[in-house]
Specification:
The protein is α+β, with helices and mostly antiparallel strands. It has six helices and eight strands. The longest helix is centred in the C-terminal third of the chain and has 31 residues, at about 215-245.
């Protein structure tokens, strides 16, 4: 397995710091911490499936038909609990690059903001960045270095990053000319993001917690792009060879 070496200098520079540790398979050097429900970026698909199944004995893990994700929806209470693990694509071995967990609450079974924050702080420590986007939306970010160690500070530009924005690239490869925000995200957004939808000052309407390693995802997506380009080039050569055989007689 080879990392792609894109022609565009900006993407090449962003990949450089991951190349030495992930030259053959981006999974190999992925740290096992932090995790979300015991699932971490770089975790092999089958191990992640087994770990996710431990979340419920009643509800089964579902696998997308294209092996792009694992998911579980727990509906044994009025508050739905949805967990999704997103997977790298061929030619990479399928492994997790992002995990999301979401819950919605109703008035009869609420969760307080303090309860959620207490659980997050116990698991991950003090958040690195915070952004209040108004309208009840509060975002907290735990930013990690490449080894998985929590960073006490980080640039505010990383609050514009999210794993969801990388979904469009994981199957078809990263953009050749990433903008400034994308460059920052591709370079160093290894993070837990907690997105709180607040009902009021005390109660939640919903939350989503996301763990993503974007540099790891970038490496895997570049492998995928390289393989697709190679397959397209092979098909083009074969088409030319077939066309060359159709020499007419005059």
């Amino acid at each position: 397995m080879r990392l792609v070496v894109p022609a565009i200098v900006t993407v090449t520079a962003l990949l450089a710091f991951t190349a030495t540790s992930r030259a053959q398979n981006p999974r190999d050097a992925a740290p096992k911490t932090p995790d979300l429900l015991g699932i971490y970026p770089g975790m092999p698909m089958m191990a992640a499936r087994a770990q996710l199944q431990q979340h419920s004995k009643r509800f089964q893990v579902l696998t997308a038909v294209d092996d792009s994700q694992l998911s579980m929806t727990v509906t044994d209470s009025s508050n739905r609990d949805l967990i999704t693990a997103f997977l790298t694509r061929a030619p990479n071995d399928p492994a997790v690059w992002m995990i999301q967990r979401s819950q919605n609450f109703n008035a009869s079974e609420p969760m307080s903001i303090s309860a959620l924050l207490s659980a997050l702080h116990e698991k991950y420590g003090k958040e690195t960045l915070t952004m209040d986007r108004g309208g009840g939306g509060l975002y907290l970010f735990w930013i990690f270095d490449s080894s998985g160690k929590l960073r006490p500070s980080a640039g505010q530009d990383l609050t514009a990053c999210s794993g969801g924005s990388f979904l469009q690239y994981i199957a078809n490869g990263p953009p050749q000319t990433p903008n400034g925000i994308e460059q920052a995200c591709f370079r160093s957004f290894y993070a837990i993001t907690a997105m709180l939808n607040r009902h009021d000052a005390q109660m939640l309407e919903a939350y989503t917690v996301e763990l993503v390693n974007v540099p790891y995802a970038l490496s895997a997506a570049s492998n995928t792009l390289h393989a697709k380009n190679a397959a397209a080039e092979k098909a083009r050569r074969e088409l030319i060879e077939r066309a060359d055989q159709k020499k007419p007689a005059f």
